[in-house]
Amino acid sequence: MTDHGPSGATVFIGQKPTMTYVFQVVSQLNSGAGPVVVKARGNAIGKAVDVVEVVRRRFLVGQVTVGTIVIDTERLVNREGRDANVSSIAIPLSRTGPPPGASAAPSSLPPPSESPHP
Predict the structure, then answer these.
(1) Which residue of 14, 29, 32, 56 sits 20 to 30 Å from the alpha carbon of 67, by its own alpha carbon?
(2) What ranges make up the beta strands (E) of 6-69?
């Protein structure tokens, strides 16, 4: 699931396959949505780390920086009605490379001259 906030997008990691979340993160970074935060709780934390690493090392190599990672413990009520501590993680990603389709630098060549050919 992806949430669009005022400061960018958030991708919540759950039970879907890892590549589903990788494609969501890459598409959000390519759209220029600002920083994308990958969030997960409990057993999905490992998958969140996998998602970030696949994005960094296979899809957007050298074009993504990882911000300050925030780890926390959330207190939830479990199915039995008791309080339970659940670990959570938030990993912010920012695109540092050029957006797709943009040229790296403007052309420094002069415009073609319009001289007649003999």
Answers:
(1) 14
(2) 8-12, 36-41, 64-66
CA 26/CA 58 separation, integer angstroms: 11
Q: Would you list the domain boundaries of the chain?
A: 2-95
3-state secondary structure 71-94: EEEEEEECCCCCEEEEEEEEEEEE
pLDDT band, residue 5 (cuts 50/70/90):
low
Q: Are strands 36-41 and 8-12 parallel, antiparallel or unpaired?
A: parallel
Q: How far apart are CA 19 and CA 5, in angstroms?
A: 23
pLDDT per position as a tens digit, 46-77: 999 999 999 999 999 989 999 999 999 999 89
